[in-house]
Specification:
The complex is a heterodimer of chains A (about 250) and B (about 180).
Chain A: H1 8-53, H2 55-60, H3 62-74, H4 86-91, H5 93-110, H6 112-115, E1 118-120, H7 121-133, H8 143-151, E2 160-164, E3 172-176, H9 183-195, E4 199-200, H10 202-209, H11 213-225, E5 230-234, E6 237-241, H12 243-246
Antiparallel strand pairs in A: 1-3, 2-3, 4-6, 5-6
Helix pairs in contact in A: 5-7, 5-8, 10-11
Chain B: H1 33-54, E1 58-60, E2 67-68, E3 73-74, H2 77-89, E4 93-95, E5 103-106, H3 111-124, E6 131-133, H4 134-138, H5 149-161, E7 165-169, E8 176-181
Antiparallel strand pairs in B: 1-5, 2-3, 4-5, 6-8, 7-8
Helix pairs in contact in B: 3-5
Classes of the chains: A mainly alpha (about 250), B alpha+beta (about 180).
């Protein structure tokens, strides 16, 4: 029996063995990558075929649309990303969301004299679907649809956007204001939304955000100017109420 | 809701429970002009709706509508005056006594519309070419039932100016005794 281990020969053998393993390893890896690529391509083709076949369902049914979006996300495809290309041409998804974005902005702007151009996602969805249902061709949209649409409005800069207002995925405020909302302003709006009360005071802002009175005052001034808050003068000091938070489910008309 | 009224009024606007709705801020209501305009217009609409539902024809600063006990908020006197001023400016209100300025008539319909209503009612009631007393016009289930006499006189004057009636009495500070409606 040949002894293992010692000797130049043994070392050479070991090295050769390792080389072979490495080669095999690389080959396996290459094969794996190839296979993965092929799978992805196949998957993509199937997905495209699926999209084409179910185009009308995707347009009509929000839940179906949601699942479809998830599938696209897993293979790293964003149907909204390009205005040209197979996806938007095939599905018209580009213009679908563009349409929602425009309608959403219209709704928010139309009530800006009441809430300064800030509205909860739930209220926006209600109002949007109400007006869409009046036109027979238009389908109901989900909250996710609206969020996607607004987020794709990057062209408008920081005038339009979303603020996460709570712990759950569906709690958002949509804003559309003529002046860009600075980070400080959105921070206060977000703080108010997450606080559970539809109002803030200078004191509550300072103690919860660790700000100076001056900084809080400056934000309050902007929010008043934009009509995002209304002033409540009480004997215990001034409170600033957000119509958008107060009326989240009641529909200020 | 404010603790009011024999007649049920249920059309409170959503803003009635929104504390800032009751704020009078220095010389204005809300400091933001657009917001203030909205606040004013909702108040005026509320007063008109409330008045027409409960057949209220005049109002002053003490009316309970200006306080919402549920949210512990009240409009100040200045706030109420601002609303009254705006109603007067837009012909939806009129001082009962211009020297006192504490009470206003509420024109939830314009005088012209009331004049038409009165004329129609006169026709229906067979009053044309006959004389009716003020009492008759303001009672007995007419559409103007409950209207303050001074307001009726103003409505009659509008009708008279268009040649549809003739007011009797009322000259030299005397009270109006009756009115003759023409065919």
């Amino acid at each position: 029996m040949r002894r293992r281990g010692v000797g130049v020969g043994a070392v050479k053998d070991l090295k050769a063995g390792q080389e072979k393993y490495k080669e095999k390893g690389n080959l396996l890896q290459e094969n794996l990558i190839d296979e993965l690529s092929r799978n992805l391509d196949q998957f993509k083709t199937k997905l495209e075929a699926f999209a084409a076949k179910h185009r009308s369902a995707i347009k009509k049914d929000a839940k179906f649309r949601e699942h479809f979006q998830d599938m696209c996300a897993t293979i790293g495809v964003d149907p909204l990303a390009s205005s040209k290309g197979f996806w938007s041409e095939m599905l018209g998804m580009g213009s679908f969301y563009y349409e929602i974005a425009v309608q959403a902005v219209e709704v928010v702007l139309s009530t800006s004299h009441l809430n300064g151009g800030v509205m909860s996602l739930g209220e926006l969805q209600n109002r949007l679907n109400k007006s869409r249902s009046k036109s027979l061709k238009q389908t109901e949209v989900s909250c996710e649809d609206i969020l996607r649409a607004i987020k794709s409005l990057n062209v408008l800069g920081k005038s339009c956007g979303v603020i996460a207002s709570g712990k759950s995925k569906s709690e958002y405020l949509i804003f559309c204001v003529p002046e860009e909302l600075s980070l400080d302003n959105t921070t206060v709006v977000q703080y108010a939304a997450q606080s559970g009360s539809p109002f803030v005071t200078v004191d509550s802002i300072c103690s919860n955000l660790g700000w100076t009175t001056q900084r809080a005052d400056s934000v309050i001034k902007t929010l008043i100017c934009e009509g995002i808050v209304w002033v409540d003068d009480t004997s215990r000091g001034r409170m600033y109420w957000f119509p958008s938070l107060f009326m989240a489910n009641k529909g200020f008309d | 809701m404010a603790t009011i009224a024999a007649v049920e009024f249920n059309s409170w606007p959503a803003h009635y429970n929104f504390p800032p709705f009751f704020t009078y801020f220095k010389n204005n209501l809300q400091p933001n002009r657009e917001t203030q305009a909205k606040q004013l217009s909702i108040w005026i609409q509320l007063i008109k709706d409330y008045a027409s539902k409960t057949r209220l024809f005049s109002i002053d600063h003490s009316h309970p509508i200006f306080t919402n006990t549920e949210i512990s908020r009240s409009l100040t006197q200045e706030g109420i005056s601002t609303i009254f001023d705006e109603m007067i400016r837009t012909s939806q209100g009129e001082y009962v006594d211009a020297s006192k300025k504490d009470r206003i008539f509420i024109w939830w319909q314009s005088k012209e519309v009331w004049a038409k209503v009165l004329m129609q009612s006169a026709e229906k009631g067979g009053l044309l070419n006959s004389v009716a007393t003020i009492y008759e016009l303001l009672n007995d289930h007419t559409p103007l039932e409950g209207m303050e006499e001074a307001m009726l006189v103003k409505v009659l004057k509008v009708l008279e100016a268009s040649g549809k009636c003739e007011v009797m009495g009322g000259a030299a500070g005397g009270s109006v005794e009756g009115v003759k409606f023409f065919m």
